[in-house]
Design goal:
Strand order of the largest sheet of chain A: 6-7-8-3-9-10-12-11
Number of strands of chain A: 12
CATH superfamily of the largest domain in chain B: P-loop containing nucleotide triphosphate hydrolases
Radius of gyration of chain B: 21 Å
Structural class of chain A: alpha/beta
Largest sheet of chain A: 8 strands, mixed
Largest interface: A-B, 37 and 45 residues
Structural class of chain B: alpha/beta
Oligomer: heterodimer
Helix content of chain B: 25-40%
CATH class of the largest domain in chain A: Alpha Beta
Number of helices of chain A: 10
Shape of chain B: globular
Chain lengths: 318, 347
């Protein structure tokens, strides 16, 4: 059985204009020690899924269908108290904009120690602090910076500190939401390589949320392409990159400048994603799709299977 | 710089330096000057797209702001079509500013939220007292259409919050282009946008160059974007030019260890997913070498401890048009597993 299983998950937000269906019928699973990249543009629901996995949906958000199980445990049935025990210990998150995730008026080392103490109230403070030292070594932060404040850290160091905090309670799964977006490319590369090796070392499952398809290609085993709240294609990274089937996946790959290969012309995706309020019959991509047929507008597309792991939500893909 | 084969530059930077004085004593740079740009010389040719690539703090944005006159250089000269910027006054200075426009990184902050798209885009015309209300409206609509906001009447009367990020960036381009500038500085125009929108913006920039022969200076941290758009690329590190040359040469045959490190660090996918690495970066950084040495010394794996720490390499041509600032550019390594598998390739 998979470590983390998301089954037909639907999430909606109450808004002034009506119910917004941010995530619609999304399923995926994650094995121990593997990584899954969720890729899509802003508003496709990828961060919403991450928040639901952490039990941190905002007040106007609600799971309207489906289920999430972590190591056999139904996460949607947890009480707030149970969440508080499970969060960070079983599943941890590296938040978007890590620069702002640290408390500016507390020394970084103490913040991390506090996170450990909160979840292990019996632990003596000295032991927590020595654990923090271990974490610092793990993520490549110099020990003499333990007593610094966040503003004394560079962007990459803050990112490492936030990763250290996510690792603090030995979680089985880490949700990393755009963890390197604000970083320079060399620092980003270092963090990505580090994340990969930590994952191997501790056999952690990682859900890697990003808008950048090239980063996901670099770090993940599996990839799920999301569009307008739905998963539209999922498979191993090799499958999805070499044999993309869904027209949106192809368009996304075609709109990304690459460093190698022929210098082909990029083809932007015309138009905008649909608004997710009200009824959306048919395929959500059809208004922007180069291969859509008449039926796409009316009938919801069906999943098609191309290999053990490669699935595509489209009626017209070959 | 070898210019016998190239057309006369439209804009030249000659030995431009810019320092920022940091205030206070706390922190690392306390009381010292921060070098934003050090003796930068570049020439921009008519109708070329020139990429200025570097990390944050490299001085690339400062360079763009100097070019449009938002900052003043401490040293050096900037020459637009044969006229030196420093000597311009009054009407001549206004003319310069008309010829050199900029679009900023964040389209959520560069447009005034209280002003309609029409008024935002027409503002340069009003400021420069060009045309009357009717001709301005026509001009704005035509420009909006040219940047892909069609039908333009649908967009002209909206406000920024009613547009997506990609659409806002198009408005910013329209506003920069409405005076028909000779040079357009694009400062990270797509870093705030999703992939499908950024490809749209790239297309618009290519079209602007094609239709109006505008020189575009693209400031970016992404070598992949620079490779896609640019004819030539300059790689800049801590205010120093490291390597300048044709885009394809810089990507497929980089000779500066910093350029090689940037290429190593760029996430790759598809055809080039498993390319060998150059591995020119040392970690952890070396202690500082003092002001005289190479700017990249602290992170350079190839550095010769005595020579590179004491003597800054000059930017010198390796082949005509390909300049490298490294003492060892002739002998910098090929990727670990040999030279057969390279980035780049057919156009």
């Amino acid at each position: 059985m998979a470590l983390l299983e998301v089954h037909n998950l639907s999430i909606a937000y109450r808004t002034k204009r009506g119910l917004l269906q941010a995530v619609d019928n999304v399923s995926f699973s994650l094995e121990q020690g593997r990584s899954l990249g969720l890729v899509g543009e802003s508003g496709c629901g990828k961060t919403t899924i991450g928040m639901a996995l952490m039990g941190l949906l905002p007040r106007n958000g609600r799971v309207t269908g489906g289920g999430i199980t972590l190591a056999g445990r139904d996460l949607l049935a947890l009480t707030r108290q149970q969440w508080r025990e499970l969060r960070w210990r079983e599943i941890a998150m590296i938040f978007q904009a890590a620069m702002n995730a640290l408390n500016p008026v507390q020394r970084v080392g103490e913040q991390i120690a506090e996170a450990i103490l909160t979840h292990n109230p019996q632990m003596p403070r000295a032991q927590a602090l020595s654990q923090v030292e271990g974490l610092y070594q793990l993520v490549g932060l110099p020990l003499e910076r333990l007593r610094d404040y966040p503003h004394q850290y560079s962007g990459g160091m803050k990112q490492r500190a936030v990763i250290a905090m996510a690792l603090a309670c030995n979680p089985k799964v880490i949700v990393a939401d755009e963890p390197t977006t604000a970083l320079d490319v060399i620092v980003q590369d270092q963090i990505l390589q580090e994340t990969k090796s930590l994952q191997k070392e501790f056999n952690i499952g990682i859900i890697f949320i990003s808008h950048d398809i090239s980063i996901v290609a670099e770090v993940c085993h599996h990839i799920g392409i999301m569009y307008a709240g739905q998963m539209v294609e999922t498979g191993s990274v090799a499958e999805v990159f070499s044999q993309a089937r869904h027209p949106y996946t192809r368009a996304l790959l075609g709109s990304f400048p690459a460093l190698g290969g022929a210098r082909r012309r990029l083809s932007p995706i015309a138009g905008e994603p649909p608004r997710l309020i009200g009824q959306l019959p048919g395929c959500r991509f059809c208004a922007r799709c180069p291969v859509s047929g008449h039926s796409c507008k009316l009938e919801p597309p069906q999943w098609r299977q191309f290999s053990d792991s490669h699935f595509v939500l489209c009626d017209h893909c070959e | 710089m070898d210019q016998t084969l190239s057309p006369a530059p439209i804009l030249e930077l000659r030995g431009i330096s810019k320092h920022y004085r940091s205030r206070g004593r706390s922190g690392r740079g306390g009381g010292q000057d921060v070098v934003a740009l050090d003796q930068i010389s570049l020439d921009f040719r008519p109708a070329e797209i020139f990429g200025l690539v570097g990390e944050s703090g490299s001085g690339k944005t400062t360079c763009g702001r100097l070019i449009v006159g938002l900052e003043k250089a401490d040293q050096g000269e900037m020459v637009l079509q044969g006229r030196s910027y420093g000597t311009l006054k009054g009407q001549a200075l206004r003319d310069y500013r008309r010829q050199v426009q900029i679009i900023f990184q964040d389209p959520y902050q560069s447009l005034n939220p209280q002003i309609s798209i029409l008024d935002s885009v027409a503002e340069p015309l009003v400021t420069n007292r060009i045309g009357d209300g009717k001709s301005r409206l026509e001009k704005v609509l035509a420009t909006l259409k040219a940047v892909g906001l069609a039908p333009p009447e649908d967009y002209a009367y909206r406000f920024p919050h009613q547009l997506s990020g990609g659409q806002r960036q198009r408005v910013a381009i329209a506003r920069a282009m409405i005076l028909g500038p000779k040079v357009l500085v694009a400062d990270e125009p797509t870093s705030m946008l999703d992939a499908s929108y950024s490809a749209q913006i790239f297309d618009i920039l290519l079209e602007v160059r094609q239709r109006l022969d505008t020189t575009i200076i693209l400031i970016t941290h992404s070598l992949a974007a620079a490779r896609y758009l640019c004819d030539r690329i300059a790689v800049i590190y801590r205010g120093h030019l490291m390597e300048v040359g044709p885009a394809e040469t810089i990507i497929s045959n980089p000779r500066h260890p910093y350029t090689q490190a940037l290429i190593d660090a760029t996430p790759k996918f598809g055809d080039c997913a498993s390319l060998p690495r150059y591995g020119t970066l040392v970690s952890p950084e070396r202690p500082a070498s003092g002001a005289a040495g190479c700017a990249f010394f602290r992170r350079c794996g190839l550095a010769h401890l005595a020579r590179c720490a004491r003597q800054a390499p000059e930017l010198r041509p390796l082949t005509p048009g390909h300049l490298v600032a490294c003492h060892y550019s002739e002998e910098s390594p090929d990727p670990e597993t040999g030279a057969t598998c390279r980035l780049g390739g057919m156009s």
